[in-house]
């Protein structure tokens, strides 16, 4: 341990860490551009100047190790003057196009200029024109060389994290410019991250380009449902301008730091996987009937009437002739309700959730083969034997006419077993119920369609592949006509005569923790923002 | 006898016509004078124009009148007649209709004793330019003005509206309070003139007008008389927009009659002030045979010319006072009710009493 | 909190008679009356045209002279090629206290301009004419100098201006 003093307060920090790490631990704000905790130290932006007593000159905090008895000042006149001088140099060639820059509002140059800007600049020279402006360097990223302050974060990201070596700094002196290597395109699976780490507007997200100014965005902590990794994310949705882009609520996803899961990063598939929240949703409210009233010929049934109808059917149903395809995309709470209602109360023997043949790509960094966020949770909660998790035997039984009714949560049977099977199942099964947020071929042929809330519209928890339980949070209300799955399942349990007295997901989770030894002792408070591992 | 009747009818028509014309014009004056006082132009959008080419000479005459906005008075009248004549539920139909008539009739009746000229020798007759030469003219005037209270209180009472009733009460107490001052103030003039006949009072001012001999009485009378007209600053009984007066339930021409009463009373008060304090039809230095100036010069004039000059002088004086009353109405803010009562009972009434006593003492001492 | 008691001024004898105040009031109003009447009379004979007898402007026929800084209906300024100067930076939309501006941005073919409005809607029915949008604009793209004051419409929709109407006031 080293005893040091920062801005007049004593701290005891680990030996060998850098001064900027000590400053971050002390939660003191210090300007930085090139320093990123996930990347190697470059020390080339030089804005993180601090004054260390008994040293003749100010030093950069990111590349100085702490030593016993060090006395550091981050806001002393000397430190401030150095920071100011550095920022003046950084801004020497930076254009004044904040009005058109998407980074404006979350730009570190803007932020630190407010703090340590030289409001009366001495520079009178012409700015050096760089070549590439608003230049797409790949499917996801737009490059603007003028705005670059040559912090080299993106270069190091390509070298150290993705190891694709996309970026380089070309030319010399004040004509230096950042660019992708000649003949290359930035198209790796993590390319979106360079827009996040770029402290200025040089690398911006093409998907988010001009969609919305960042200060209109609301933010909610959540978990990416794209694969079983469960990367921590922030959902950025529009909140201040209800009339702005009426159909789209989610503007972008940003990774959220979680050292145990995704560190600071997220893959592009997850980053741009939010489109299903606003597109292709089932928005007409619950639908009933063979061809249903999609054309709007009959008045839409209400949730109450549909659930009463369902409860009536379920009460009379023969447990051996009905099956449930639960979804590994549902939260732990919802799966627990599925277990309570269909396994425990209705005693249906045929419940499965695992759809075979849905695996995708995988790598050694973040992306996982299993594209469902909660397979572990489903398996732990439903407690079926490994072979019983698979839906194939039940589907086969349905195809042969052995089932009277089938309740499908989210699965697309056509995608799993082919359209032919879906057609056969449709003909053989008397009642086909579909529940899910998005439209798909199964929903199109179901007798009863229940529109569900997406993961951005409800509370709950996912369990990732290594058994880490993480919370998703509600960013905004469900689209018109849809209900969160736990919500209508609770209603249904009441109609079926069960006495589940849960007020919401937190309550349900507590009941789950009380019953299931994997979840024993867990609660929302314990899970927090960073998640919590299951008991093994 | 019949000729006598014709002459009286002619005189009555003349004074009535003048009074009503003045009252009608006062609506225009009110608009325009207030506008000029407040650096505005005033209403000038009501206009009469003929499209036909043949009537263009008429347009030429109407042009300046249009520009002056005279026809707003006409438009007002048309509006009053065309509006719904509303009668509130539970109102006393008979009294509700009678009240405005009482108001306007008694206000007009008071003009009967106002002398607007000297005795005119015409065709071997002596025509007194006064509808009725009552020797108790002042009593008649006060009687008529007092009866006007009935119109007001009946209007408030018959409307079946508490606010109207309260307004009527306010009006009654205000008018009763100020009538005492008015009567006492005039007593000074009566004592000086030694007669109750208005023609006699005017005649007695041939040398020195009343406002010189009775300055305090003039101020007191004018204030009290203005209060009688129920116009700003004494418009507590009406207070159309803020405190709601006795005619709140009136509309159409019935309301118009109350409105007219106000203006007729203004003209009447102007006539009375002229008669009591500004020598009525008297013209300075004009004797029955012509002008006799103090520096010795003299202009002989025929009798008819002297009479015409007198009548003209009377109406000019009335116009001047109308102007003054309008100016007061557009200058002063409304009194509070306690201020109104304090002014009436604690200042005007004692002052008028003192004035009467002092005057009587002086008159007796002079013998 | 310190309380300061201000005593009401006692009225003197003359104040209580109201006479001086009444006289003063009448003096002021009659002064205006006679002065204005004199000016009107002089106008009738063609004199003293530089004096005004009344402050009135006969509105629909006669427009009131407006100060140079008067904020009137908005307009969007154009570049030399006729396209809007606006770069859809949303500063005006952000600063607008009435939230009457709604901009949708799009890509400008010229990479040196980069951004331009796809639509620029302004609801005059909501606008409070504070002029913040003009003040905040970094491109001098929106101005309130059209001198158009008589804005009226039969519907709320009619009060809404799109980019074409803003560009060509």
Structure description:
The complex is a heterotrimer of chains A (536), B (367) and C (169). Chain A is an alpha+beta fold and 536 residues long. Chain A folds into 3 domains: 2-90, Ubiquitin-like (UB roll) (Roll), CATH 3.10.20; 98-205, Alpha-Beta Plaits (2-Layer Sandwich); 287-533, 3-Layer(aba) Sandwich (Rossmann fold), CATH 3.40.50.740. Chain A has 17 helices and 22 strands. Chain A has a 6-stranded mixed beta sheet. Chain A has a 5-stranded mixed beta sheet with strand order 2-1-5-3-4, sandwiched between helices. In chain A, helix 8 (303-316) packs across helix 15 and helix 9 packs parallel to helix 15 (485-495). Chain A starts with a strand and ends with a strand. Chain B has 367 residues and is mainly alpha-helical. Chain B has one domain (2-42, 83-366). Chain B is 66% helix and 4% strand. In chain B, a hairpin with a 2-residue loop joins strand 1 and strand 2. The radius of gyration of chain B is 22 Å and the shape is globular. Chain C has 169 residues and is an alpha+beta fold. Chain C folds into 2 domains: 13-44; 75-167, 2-Layer Sandwich (Alpha-Beta Plaits), CATH 3.30.70.3270. In chain C, 27% of the residues lie in helices and 13% in strands. Chain C contains 5 helices and 5 strands, in the order H-H-E-H-E-E-H-E-E-H. Chain C has helices spanning 13-17, 19-44, 91-95, 132-136, 163-167, and strands at 75-76, 101-107, 115-123, 142-143, 160-161. In chain C, a hairpin with a 7-residue loop joins strand 2 (101-107) and strand 3 (115-123). In chain C, 20% of the residues are buried.
